[in-house]
From TrEMBL:
GO terms for molecular function: GTP binding; GTPase activity. This is Similar to Ras-related protein Rap-1b acc. no. Q6TEN1. It comes from Pyronema omphalodes (strain CBS 100304) (Pyronema confluens). Coiled coil: none annotated. GO terms for cellular component: membrane.
Length: 164
C-alpha cells in the first residue's frame, strides 16, 4: 500500500490536535494536552486505491523533512497565529529538496465568527501570493472542511510524489 507522511504545523492553541483527532478518529476532543506530539495512522480511499497516511501532530518541534505534506494551521480568531505561518513556510522551503511542496492552509475555528481577527480576504491574499496554496476555513469543533483539507493535501502528495 502506498504511504504518505503529513505534518501538522502552526502556533499553539490553533487546533492542530483537534483537527487531527477529527480526521483520524471522528471525535471532538475539547481539551488536548498541548505538549503531546504524536503520530497517527489513517487509511483513506483515494479513487479506489487504499492509501496510508501517517500524520504527525506537532507541538512546537520543527519537523521539516521533505517528502512530506504540510498542513499549516492558524486560527481565524488569532492574527498572530496567522502571522506565524510565513516563517514556518520559509523554514519548509529552505530545507526542501523538491520544487513544489504539498501544502494546505487551514484557518481553523471558523465556528467562532464573532471573534474573527483574520478576514477571508487576507487569507486568500496569502494563498495567492504563495502560488495558490489551497485554503480552507475549517472547524474541528463542527467538523467542517476537516476531510477536505487533509484529502486535498493527500491528493497533492500523490500528484507530486507519484503513486508509489
Ligand atoms: P493545538 O495546540 O494547535 O494542538 O490546539 P488544540 O487542538 O489543543 O486546541 C486548542 C484549543 O482550541 C482547545 O481548547 C480546543 O477546544 C479549541 N479548538 C480547537 N479547534 C477548534 C474549533 O474548530 N473551534 C473552536 N471553537 N475551538 C476549537
Ligand atoms: Mg496540540
Amino acid at each position: 500500500r502506498r504511504e504518505y507522511n503529513i505534518v501538522v504545523l502552526g502556533a499553539g492553541g490553533v487546533g492542530k490536535s483537534c483537527l487531527t483527532a477529527q480526521f483520524v478518529q471522528n471525535v471532538w476532543i475539547e481539551s488536548y494536552d498541548p505538549t503531546i506530539e504524536d503520530s497517527y495512522r489513517k487509511v483513506v480511499d483515494v479513487d479506489g486505491k487504499s492509501t496510508v497516511l501517517e500524520i504527525l501532530d506537532t507541538a512546537g518541534t520543527e519537523q521539516f523533512t521533505s517528502m512530506r505534506g504540510f498542513l499549516l494551521v492558524y486560527s481565524i480568531t488569532s492574527l498572530s497565529s496567522f502571522n506565524e505561518l510565513a516563517p514556518i513556510r520559509d523554514a519548509i522551503l529552505r530545507i526542501k529538496e523538491v520544487d513544489e511542496v504539498p501544502m494546505v492552509i487551514c484557518g481553523n475555528k471558523s465556528d467562532l465568527e464573532g471573534d474573527r481577527q483574520v478576514s477571508k480576504n487576507r487569507a486568500n491574499h496569502i494563498s495567492k501570493k504563495w502560488g495558490n496554496v489551497p485554503l480552507y476555513e475549517s472547524s474541528a469543533k463542527k467538523r467542517l472542511h476537516v476531510d477536505d483539507a487533509f484529502m486535498n493535501l493527500t491528493r497533492q502528495m500523490i500528484r507530486m510524489m507519484g503513486a508509489t
